[in-house]
Specification:
Blueprint (H helix, E strand, L loop, with lengths): L4 E2 L13 H9 L11 H11 L5 H10 L8 H13 L5 E3 L13 H6 L4 E3 L1 H8 L4 H5 L2 E4 L2 E4 L4 E4 L4 E4 L3
Antiparallel strand pairs: 1-7, 2-3, 4-5, 6-7
Helix pairs in contact: 2-3
């Protein structure tokens, strides 16, 4: 095992839990990437928007097509877009309404949210290309399962090695 990494023999699986390896790997992919600081779901959302899915509904549908199995709900997906739009350096913007407010409560904005145009900002394009890092631009304060991902306690997912690495913050 490489120092500073958390290697998991998740390929093995078990007879009683045959889908455990897949589920665990997909969960770990929600950690910020070592390449650009985006979780897999965030990156797929930005790629969908960059590729022409110009509403949250279209981006959600495009995101679901890239998943091997159903992974998240539309409400969680929109909460990710909301986080990306309300950041210090927004990566997406909602045309006409700004951040995706009203996601979890009754609000007139919510009715129209799914059909609003969502735009990738210049910073969003830079992060998607790997020229910038989402976490370095905007920080992070997120719970992923029982792990608190924060600037001082950050784990990142390395796609090339399929391992978690402790970020040297």
């Amino acid at each position: 095992m490489v120092p500073g990494t958390f290697g998991l023999p998740i390929e093995a699986g078990t007879r009683v839990l045959p889908f455990l390896a897949f589920a665990l790997r997909r969960h770990l992919e929600q950690c910020p990437s070592t390449a650009n600081g985006l979780s897999r779901s965030e990156e797929q959302a930005l790629e969908a928007i960059s590729g022409g899915s110009n509403s949250p509904g279209e981006a959600f549908a495009a995101n679901q097509e890239r998943e091997e199995a159903v992974f998240l709900s539309d409400a969680v997906f929109v909460s990710y877009l909301n986080d990306l739009s309300e950041a210090r350096e927004p990566l997406v913007l909602f045309e006409g309404v700004g951040p995706a407010t009203g996601v979890y409560r009754e609000d007139p904005v919510r009715e129209h949210l799914w059909n609003q145009e969502v735009l990738l900002t210049e910073k969003g394009r830079e992060v998607l290309r790997g020229d910038e890092d989402r976490v370095r631009l905007n920080g992070i304060d997120r719970w992923l399962g029982g792990v608190h991902l924060a600037d001082e306690t950050l784990w990142r997912w390395d796609r090339s090695t399929q391992t978690l690495k402790r970020d040297a913050a």
